[in-house]
Amino acid sequence: MFKKLAVALAVAALASSATVVLAGSGAATGINGSMHDINSLSSYTPDKFQRTCVFCHTPHNAQKTDLNVPLWNHANAASVTMATPYTWIAPTNSGINIGDPLIGPSRLCMACHDGVTAVDSHGTAGSDVQGTKAMASSYVDGLNNTANRFITDLTVTHPIGFTWTDAVAARGTEIVDKTLGFITNDVTGNFDSVNRTGMTYSTKTIKDTLYGDYMTCATCHDVHNTVNAKPSAGNSYNYFLYAKEEGSAICLSCHVK
């Protein structure tokens, strides 16, 4: 009887642990098992103790840098000096200036997504063996095109490193008030983007995700996979976005179109 009970408990424990590992694969299901859980990615060296947060953060002996970092535990991006910011083509002389395109958390993101710095490199607590593999993987997007998971040219990405104040001054009512939230439901029907009547907002406002007043990678992406938007039925993407791809909800969260 005791042996049967022990086996049952062991099976239940395995089922429970499997659930935890896979829980983060979908949007808003947590960091464990998500694409930001390095232990779950076979291409990289896992942490000795299977810690998830340790690839970016540590409670003790954090790295000393000149950045305002949250107990940083990762190697610093090796290629930040080559980052050329986005340039606005129209309107001419937009007045939207980018001094440091990687200001704030964007520089932390590039510590993995620059294609040079080792993704599995983190602090040595516990005499853990350090990985040395940089991000080189690609994926097939919804249009069957190959896309890289790393960024080497900021001129062909959505601009970051500018202030919301500058954007509003240059674009006026084309930019949504930053005190509003992100759209998380399907955007259908009349696009009333000025007052956004009938649209559902997330628990996060745009202002909540700005770095001071700067737009960064973390303005659109929830790196911890906790309050990001789930896709509509039939879709399974998870780009860690605060609003859906469907109906261009992520775009219309900020832009009045």
Overall structural class, as computed from helix and strand content, comes to mainly alpha
Biggest sheet, spatial arrangement of strands: 1-2
How many helices? 5
Instruction: Provide the β-strand percentage band.
Output: 5-15%
Low-confidence stretches: 1-23
Report the span from N to C terminus: 67 Å
For the secondary structure, the number of strands is: 4
The helix content is 10-25%
Order of helices and strands: HHEEHEEHH
* Mean pLDDT value: 81
Global morphology? globular
- Radius of gyration, in angstroms, nearest whole number: 21 Å
Quick recap of the structure?
This protein is mainly alpha-helical and 257 residues long.
Descriptive report:
- With 257 residues, this protein is mainly alpha-helical.
- It contains 5 helices and 4 strands; from the N terminus they run H-H-E-E-H-E-E-H-H.
- It has helices spanning 2-22, 105-113, 164-171, 206-209, 249-252, and strands spanning 138-140, 146-148, 181-183, 201-205.
- The protein has a two-stranded antiparallel sheet with strand order 1-2. Strands 3-4 form a two-stranded antiparallel ribbon.
- Strand 1 and strand 2 (146-148) form a beta hairpin.
- The protein starts with a helix and ends in a 5-residue tail after the last helix.
Brief descriptors of the model:
257 residues, mainly alpha, two-stranded antiparallel ribbon, 5 helices, 4 strands, 18% helix, 5% strand
